[in-house]
Amino acid sequence: MGRADVLVLFAFDNVLVDVDSDIHIARALDADLVNTIWSKNAADKKIDRAKTMDEFFVELAKHHPEVTHEDIRNAAQRLPFSQSILDAVRLVVDDFGATCKIVSDSTVFGVRSFLEHHGLADQVSEVVANSTHFEDGGKVLRVRPYHGNHLAPHGCRNCPNNLCKGVVLERILQQHRYARVLYVGGDVGDFCPSTKLAADDVVFARCSGENELLTLLNENPDQIQAHIRQWKTGEDVLAYFRNFFYRQYAECRQANASDTLIYAEQDGNFSVPTPMPREIGDLLVVFDFDDSLVNEDSDVFVFGSFHPELCQTAYERHANKPIWPSVFDDMLQVLSTEKPHVTPELIRETVAQIPIQARMIDAIRMAVDLFGAEVKVISDGNTFYIESMLQHRELSEHVKEVFANPVEHETLDDGRTRLRIRPYHADHLDPHGCTWCPTNMCKGSILDSIRNGKAYSRVIYVGDGTGDFCPASRLTENDVVLARSHLVNGNPYGLQRRINENPGIVHAPVVSWSTGYDIYRRFAQFCPSPYVSPRTIPRISGSVLVVFDYDWSLINENSDTFIFQQLYPELLGTLRERRKTQPSWTKIMDDMLGVLAEDKSDITPDMIRDTVARVPIQSHMLDALRLAAEIYNADVKIVSDANSVYIESMLELRGLTQDVNEVITNPASFETLENGRSRLRVRPYHGEAFEAHGCEWCPTNMCKGRIVDILRKAHPYSSVLYVGDGSGDFCAATHLTKFSVRKIPTGFKMASMKLGTHLNADVLVLFAFNHTLVDVDSNVHIARALDADLVNTIWSKNAADKKIDRAKTMDEFFVELAKHHPEVTHEDIRNAAQRLPFSQSILDAVRLVVDDFGATCKIVSDSTVFGVRSFLEHHGLADQVSEVVANSTHFEDGGKVLRVRPYHGNHLAPHGCRNCPNNLCKGVVLERILQQHRYSKVLYVGGGIEDFCPSTKVPNDITVIARNEVLSLPNTFPDTVQVQQWKAGDDVLSLLRNFFHQYPSKQVAKASVKTFSPISQVFSGSGQVLVVFDFDESLVNKDSDRFAFQCFHPELIKTLEERHALNPVWPSVFDELHQILANEKPELTPELICARVAQIPIQNRMVDAVRMAVEQFGAEVKIISDGNSLFIEKALKFHGLAPYINEVLTNQADLETMDNGRTRIRLRPHHDQPMNCSWCPSNLCKGSILDSIRNKKQYSHVLYVGDGIGDFCPASRLTKNDVVFARADEVDGRSYGLQKRIDSNPTLIKASVVPWNTGDDIYRHFAQVLHAQT
């Protein structure tokens, strides 16, 4: 569950509160004084409010010394407001994880006082306003401008000198590029930031009061790219936010949101969506105790505390008696004899305080309180120690059950008591028989007994040692093993080591952890239902490790100094002197944090976390990290000399915890002081208890080079990408190999992704090229097009070899071709490849699986990369195919000779497949692809015998779509392979359409107000289908009449609404405008106007949708439009659609000769007599036209594509067997007239209603419903 990457920016005055806060607060304190001061500056439209309010508060202190800071705070707290707008803030932050900030020309003190009073301080991450502080012992509130005199002028001519909100917004967006910005404003000062918003953003302008912002937006449309929405009350903002976030970011809804999300529809009614059903069974979380739940071995901790000498004998004792509870029972006897003062109660008090890693307790509480998990402990420790710790940490209510070696209290002869540890699996019982476990306890059998007693939907097991391997081996693929890794000395913990040594035994995904932060992060990722599968790094050679330094690398600051810059800048002045006397940077930071806690008692742990979480980050840096982890499946880690609290706080805020597999840094945690306050403690990663690392390049607390070695020792990465900046990264860089990279590639830097906007089908579609994507052998066909005799000569030499090395043969051909035909250029070869014969349907199949369902498409072929790429680029498929695996090519001799090299070259060991040619084994290629990412499904589309090998290589289920040549082989396919037959490209397209209907489309249609049956169910039966298009803003993407005047006489556009109010018939209005155009622009002939309008924009794939409906499904396509016949006819002809449109029904247009001999366009209404339809204009009733069409001919179904209110009438005439495609704005789904009218009159629509916004939507929906009909 991620967070909505949305910035919601609120103005304060007349938005979050209903008044001008400065004036309202001032009048509550002294109305006469504020009127006097404010009147002096009233004439200045760009009044410096900071200066004015500072003057007011100085005079207030003189005239009313009895007024205290509490009086000012109370006045701010009583500012009038709408409860709904405060609920809107809570909704976007608490329910969807959006970022909320306030930018205001009021004062920080006033805004913060209001927020704290109403419990919104935590929801608003930043308040940008004029700064405030108290002087004269707290008697005088001083106000300083946000943009003070110490800064260069901001340069904005429209804003006051003290604050430019546009500059503020630019600064915020430089720190993080949000996927979308919503700006809620009301005053003239909100216009400047509105001009900084992008096309996907939204500005909300208040339309009550003086409408200053709304007026400016309407007067300057050329300066605004964002969508504009009006609002009057807080209820409007809340209703819009409910709609917007539920529709656009439903997947980001936080687990602590209310059980049902109520959201307002356009007509003001409220509806409740059905909550997502929970998984069957509860979630079970199992902890090992020693070195897992706690950060020590509890037995060693006890003896180390009371009898260190005895503790040193533990391993020697275990060698003689290899049962730990028996060893420690004997040692407790010695402890009782030699240290009689150590009572069981003293042991309880001591062991209760055993160290536990930061956030580990939070992780347990989150699992139970937030996700309803059952938490149990299975440990080879003992119940006394474990229960003592749980009681002390107040976890007894959270941990439901403890399975450990039991403890008894034994009374000695002298009256004292001692602890006795008994084995969990008692000696008198039959042996448990597990070869993995010690005789006293089999954790695996305990786990089995737990699961036999109750069905759990998932088990998450947290462990570290070899004893945890047995229960890990009992888990399923739906469960998760969290295995501790990476001791400072480089040796892995026992659980991970045993997993590595016994591959295939543990079926559950294994995810590493090192700190409590890791556990917290993993729980947040793997506990929520529906469960996600961990993205584990496969333990095979070939995966990539990406290591980020943190300070000045992943972030654009030094996090250590940033915290003091924000919270205690005076301390930074002592930093240089501290460095002279203390060489350890970690110790300096720890000391300074102690001073911070002592001097600034009001600074809480939450304030520290919040501050460091918002450290500046360069544009695209986080996108690059996500790209590496989510797209390329790299193992991303952070190695830093900062500390865990700073780094984890940022990762949590930015939603990156699931992308970063491990954070290796100095451990930090908050420590409670004697006075009850907390301070942050930072400890060195390489502590004093460990042997010095001895690196001359690195500080004593951390050697990054050694850490890199440990990481590479634990896993054989094929490459390491290291991102760093400072001298501390040099050592790590020296430990990299020639296959590693010390900087991020350009592709990572330029990555710009909006993640989470849709779900892609996790399917790999692998196409062969020859006799599949093209209808011929591409090598032979290209060669024959260049020199048929030459290719026959060369090919005949190798014809006898069934496993011909095609790379070697084609290389020989191109070398000889250059000798015999030096005039042949690379363009000739490219043209031959581009002209390879193919089936259009199979290319449409590629577009379908990638564009419509987000599947991954690759090509594997024994042809050449140059030939395949040339073909793909020519047919516009280069972006759809993510990888071409073929024999490599390059040009030599100044581009005259194309050289071909085998995919599996001589520099590699032989692939060893007996069925494939030496230069390429497609089976080996497929294995390599699946090692990089385990797809949920693989579809292999092949055509030749060489495509049999890859179908045998997949361990999970695979579908082979094969031509007859493969099916006729004597070999039998493995049981896991499903085989589908195809002859033509149409077969492949049909098979893939059927298959992908089980996956959601990349642009899931948003639900309409009314609930309808799925269109694939509604649309069944036989008979011809009628497809009806509206023209303006439906078939084409503009209003054709307006488009003409925007091109040739834009001034006339401004008079449209006024003219329409006087004459509410659009063809009459536009006819008048054509008369004016002819008089004022005599050089504009009808031919020139029509030629320009013919090129009216049409959305991508809209033409393809029309052609598909006619050519593939035999539909009849008509246009019903309130445009005009002349413009529609010209546009259809220009876009090549005229042959596909059966009929156009619209207002008639012709050419009229005027008295001066020139001609002009003349428009006539469609209906000779006015229509009496209450829904339609008098000149055109689309509903009656549709009725007349259906009365003349029976159609099985009607598909109606429209956008405006004029399309409601025909939509109301359709039946339940028909479909209405209603255009919806991509921002909120409610801006076009047809959908609005449907929402207001839901009972009048019987047909299914499907929203659309792009030509891709129409193409996809047509493919779905028309295919269902056939």
Automatic annotation (TrEMBL):
Keywords: Hydrolase, Magnesium, Metal-binding
GO MF terms held by the record: metal ion binding; phosphatase activity
Required co-factors: Mg(2+)
Gene3D superfamilies registered for this protein in UniProt: 3.90.1470.20, HAD superfamily/HAD-like
UniProt cross-references to InterPro entries, sorted A to Z: HAD-like_sf (IPR036412), HAD_hydro_PyrdxlP_Pase-like (IPR006384), HAD_sf (IPR023214), Pase_PHOSPHO-typ (IPR016965)
Coiled-coil region(s): none
A Pfam match: Put_Phosphatase
Record carries keyword Nucleotide-binding: no
Family matches, as PANTHER family: LP01149P, PHOSPHATASE, ORPHAN 1, 2
Name the record gives this protein: Inorganic pyrophosphatase 3
Annotated organism of origin: Phytophthora nicotianae
Lineage: Eukaryota, Sar, Stramenopiles, Oomycota, Peronosporomycetes
